[in-house]
Write a structure and sequence with these properties.
The protein is of the alpha/beta class and 245 residues long. It has eight helices and eight strands; from the N terminus they run ααβαβαβαβαββαβαβ.
């Protein structure tokens, strides 16, 4: 009986101290929001931008802005005003550039980065590099982009929208390792990103229908070392997510 008593104590202690990472996972939380807002800052969707200006959160906020599938051909005063307001809130502003999965001419990518900086100056903290090829076949291509943007001391966020080799984290500050619908997210299996700082691993999910669904998605992302998140009701990104806190 005494032996059984001590065995019981050992089991209880093991359970309390944790033989797995279950306890530590419960203490994880989202550290950063990577907000995508592709609507125009005045007019039909102005209220969405106003919601963003009024957002109160203790999370780090990164906002992707997209004038015309990139910076456009000239400065837009309404976007400059919006960007100035975002900066006054302490948010980091990322200019949108797509790379057509490594098929876009490198000089064109660089020129778009230059135009963002020409039009909006140091208010642009970095770049959201979209349509990123997710195998090492195009690594050299993205390495050249990374070197160019880092020479300007700018943040780099890569968006393959799916799993990507860990080597790519050498080229970016953050990487979006999932961007798809809530239904697809349920079937998605993350690669092992535990060697990467969690705030650098980003998850974007759209077509959410409830806060309960948002909580399930948040839990799964945190369990898989992704503490950078954005959850949206649709995939146009014209409206601000209602799941920010």
């Amino acid at each position: 009986m005494l032996k059984a008593f001590f065995v019981g104590i050992v089991i209880l202690l093991l359970g309390a101290c944790g033989g797995s990472n279950t306890l530590s996972d419960t203490h994880k939380e989202v550290k950063a929001y990577l907000i995508i807002l592709y609507s125009y800052p005045i007019g039909q969707y102005q209220q969405e931008w106003e919601k963003l200006y009024q957002l109160n959160t203790d999370k780090k906020v990164f906002v992707v802005v997209n004038v015309s599938n990139g910076p456009g051909n000239e400065k837009d005063q309404n976007f400059e005003n919006a960007i100035t307001t975002l900066k006054s809130k302490g948010y980091s502003v990322l200019g949108y550039i797509n790379t057509k999965y490594g098929e876009k001419d490198l000089n064109l990518v660089k020129s778009e980065a230059d135009r963002w900086l020409e039009f909006y100056g140091d208010k642009i903290d970095g770049f959201f590099i979209d349509e990123v090829y997710n195998t090492l076949d195009r690594y050299s291509y993205y390495e050249q982009i990374s070197n160019y943007l880092r020479s300007k001391s700018k943040l780099i966020v890569l968006n393959p929208g799916t799993n990507i080799p860990l080597e790519y984290f050498q080229l970016a500050d953050k990487i979006v390792v999932f961007e798809n619908s809530a239904d697809e997210f349920l079937r998605y299996t993350y690669n092992n990103y535990r060697a990467v700082e969690p705030e650098r691993v980003c998850t974007i999910v759209y077509n959410l229908t409830s806060r309960e669904e948002a909580q399930r998605i948040k839990t799964k992302s945190l369990e898989n070392n992704s503490e950078c998140l954005y959850l949206s009701e649709d995939n146009t990104y014209f409206k601000l997510s209602p799941y920010l806190e």
